[in-house]
């Protein structure tokens, strides 16, 4: 085989890829500093957007790759959050003397171990959810998953008697922040002339984990398992006739997607320092599903776009609507929350009417629109 010349197409493609990767790294590193000019609140909004990206990528495995409608995905987010809150706060040692005797200095599990535990437990619950739904499709599957999500939320809200495990609707506070390599994320980190605040540190941690989850999603999509998921999505009967074990493949989709939700939940609890059942309602599940549908089901870049738009645009609108009304009319005619909900609804209807495959669908689905 004759090697391609140094200036040939292969070298040009590698150069473009290297340049694109370099620009992406620069953008990821510089973005929090650019947003900080507008105030620390914008960086906190970006951190929440990254959590939603993780959740959307996890749900995309179930809905986008495997074609299984899941309306209870927020349950795995709640499981991850409460697991970290219980294992990294004084709550259990204060409520149970036996645990206090075993851990006199309190439970303070490291964040890396917590992420592994959250992923495993959420994955197990994902498989348990998938097991009774293997023969369900469409609306019936949606109803069962919806019920599962509500059951988890109600459990979290009521497991404060006879033994106080979750502290009920009051939630769990004093949750440990992330501590990595001797760096306490709650206190920030000073590196020479640069001061990294707590929000900056959480941003870089979330961004790193988002990159890892994106890489895992691409590998899964192009793997044998990913192709089996897509075969089930297109035609489950044909996939089964071709020898695909649809039972195991579906369970893997539920478990893998749930594990991403568990990781995001543990990070949420660590960054907030507090968890309560009200953060894991049905509306959150619907919002995450909307992100996947809006961006483009099954298309990883589209799902990321949908998550960033639906998590960031409402906050941008909130900051613009009130000053705009005051400058035009001299007073506020309509509350920002009402306008935000109105535009949100109109945008979703318009997208479903004119771009049913999403804003950034896969090339195959885009050509079919």
Shape annotation: globular
Beta-strand percentage range: under 5%
> Cα distance, first to last residue?
42 Å
Strand order of the biggest β-sheet: 1-6
Structural class of the helices, strands and pairings? Answer: mainly alpha
Instruction: Give the proportion of residues in helices.
Output: 55-70%
- How would you characterize the largest beta sheet? 2 strands, antiparallel
Uncertain runs with pLDDT below 50, 5 residues or more?
none
Query: What is the CA-atom radius of gyration, in angstroms?
Result: 22 Å
Would you report the number of β strands?
6
Q: What's the total helix number?
A: 15
Mean pLDDT: 88
Order of helices and strands: HHHHHHHEEEEEHHHHEHHHH
Structural write-up:
With 369 residues, the chain is mostly helical. 70% of the residues lie in helices and 4% in strands. It is built from 15 helices and six strands. The chain has helices at residues 9-36, 40-65, 74-87, 91-95, 97-102, 111-130, 138-158, 198-221, 224-234, 236-241, 246-272, 282-295, 300-329, 336-354, 363-368, and strands spanning 172-173, 179-180, 183-184, 189-191, 194-196, 274-275. Strands 1-6 form a two-stranded antiparallel sheet. A two-stranded antiparallel sheet has the order 2-3. A two-stranded antiparallel sheet has the order 4-5. Strand 2 and strand 3 form a beta hairpin. The protein is globular, with a radius of gyration of 22 Å. The mean pLDDT is 88.
């Amino acid at each position: 085989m004759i090697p391609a010349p140094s200036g040939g197409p292969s070298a040009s493609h590698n150069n473009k890829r290297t340049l694109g990767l370099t620009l992406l790294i620069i953008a990821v590193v510089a973005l929090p500093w650019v947003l900080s000019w507008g105030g620390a609140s914008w960086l906190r909004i970006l951190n929440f957007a990254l959590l939603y990206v993780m959740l959307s990528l996890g749900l995309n495995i179930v809905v986008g790759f495997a074609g299984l409608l899941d309306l209870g995905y927020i349950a795995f987010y709640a499981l991850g959050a409460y697991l970290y809150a219980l294992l990294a706060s004084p709550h259990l040692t204060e409520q149970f003397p036996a645990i206090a005797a075993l851990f006199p200095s309190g439970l303070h599990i490291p964040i890396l171990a917590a992420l592994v535990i959250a992923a495993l437990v959420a994955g197990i619950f994902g498989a348990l959810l998938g097991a009774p739904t293997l023969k369900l499709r469409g609306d019936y599957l949606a109803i069962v998953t919806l019920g599962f999500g509500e059951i988890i939320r109600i459990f979290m809200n009521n497991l404060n008697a006879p033994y106080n495990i979750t502290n009920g609707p009051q939630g769990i506070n004093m949750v440990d922040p992330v501590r990595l390599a001797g760096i306490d994320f709650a206190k920030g980190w000073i590196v020479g002339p640069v001061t990294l605040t707590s929000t900056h540190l959480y941003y870089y941690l979330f961004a790193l984990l988002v990159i890892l989850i994106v890489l895992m999603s691409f590998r899964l999509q192009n793997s044998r398992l990913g192709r089996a998921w897509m075969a089930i999505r297109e035609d489950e009967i044909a996939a089964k006739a071709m020898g695909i074990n649809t039972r195991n493949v579906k369970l893997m989709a539920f478990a893998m997607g749930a594990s991403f939700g568990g990781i995001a939940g543990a990070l949420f609890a660590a960054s907030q320092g507090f968890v309560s059942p009200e953060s894991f309602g049905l509306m959150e599940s619907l919002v995450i599903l909307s992100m996947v549908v809006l961006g483009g089901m099954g298309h990883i870049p589209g799902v990321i776009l949908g998550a960033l738009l639906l998590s960031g645009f409402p906050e941008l609108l909130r900051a613009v609507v009130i000053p705009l009304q005051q400058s035009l009319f001299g007073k506020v005619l309509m509350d920002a929350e009402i306008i935000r909900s109105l535009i949100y609804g109109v945008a979703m209807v318009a997208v479903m009417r004119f771009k049913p495959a999403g804003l950034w669908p896969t090339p195959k689905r885009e050509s079919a629109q």
